[in-house]
Amino acid sequence: MRRRLSALVVTAAVAGGVLCAALPAQAATTTAARTGVAAGGAIHVNIEEMRKQSTNLKAKADRLDRAGKHAEAKRVRAQAYALDRKIKAYLDADENMS
Fold first, then answer.
1. φ/ψ (deg, to 5) at 41
2. Can you give the pTM of this predicted structure?
């Protein structure tokens, strides 16, 4: 009787673990998510404004470097480079759509 009971408990635990592991993967591919991606739509951005922000951030990073605040300058410079990557991604996407 003990062996049967422990085997049932182990089987139930394994089955529960499989169900819990399978649910998030199934929930991620709902039809609502697919239609939202398919519906997409145009994104309008001001590239010149983004370039201006990037230039301002780089200038701020240079000022911080001269002031001796190197860690903060590194953080601001990373923000500027992230903005540059966004600009490049927008331009590449625009070229690919045309």
1. 120, 165
2. 0.55
